[in-house]
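Why do we care about 3D structure at all? Because function follows from shape, and shape follows, mostly, from sequence. That is the central idea of this module. The next example makes it concrete: a single protein chain, its amino acid sequence, and then its structure expressed as tokens.
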Amino acid sequence: MRCADARHRRLWLGALLLGLALLPAPTGARSQAEGRTEYLMVGYAPKGRIPGVAVYRNEDGTLRGRWTTGQAQGRILSETATPEALADGIEGAYATTGANPDGRAYRGKLGIRKIADKVYALTWTNGDTGIGLLAGQALIVGYGEQAGVALYALKPDGSGDGGWTTVAAGGGIGRERFYGGGGLTATHRVAGTRPDGTPYEATVTITKEGSAYRLAWSTGEVGIGLLTAAR
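And the structure:
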């Protein structure tokens, strides 16, 4: 699959995420300025796999995105997906253009298929597959082998609360919060609920790498994340 610089981490989603039903109300959410909430968007996979994350905003049918992978050394890149044939909403076929971490431009195809409310399956012609959560006009995607995706609203103490799903979940959405680290880049306790309603506990360690974030859960998953803010 598939350059953007640090300034794109700030307000590029605008108000797109505010209506997201997966997340709790942003009372007490972490803010850089009055009226802004920070979100951590994560793609993850089992340990030993390479996670990727992409975030697209829908601009009159054209999807403009940012993405990174566990191999991009913290660099954030861009991809534009132009619709060729749409079935319903964002479902359909797209032509993609972008730049790889080595600077080489690429062209390809992307297919998006809805599998449940707010949950989409994505397939690129280079062989990548992904799972996406729709948040208003924003699509947050985790991609790679056995991919998962998560979206967290952050609070001032660096804790987060949000929703997640995986390719294997069949469209089901789980909940997860991490807390107790005393800052975002720390080791946190995790409490969550799987899509079938069963609870779980774990820990997650978050570190910063360039303009991206790496995550490692005690349950064995590894992730790569992008940070953005919305009013």
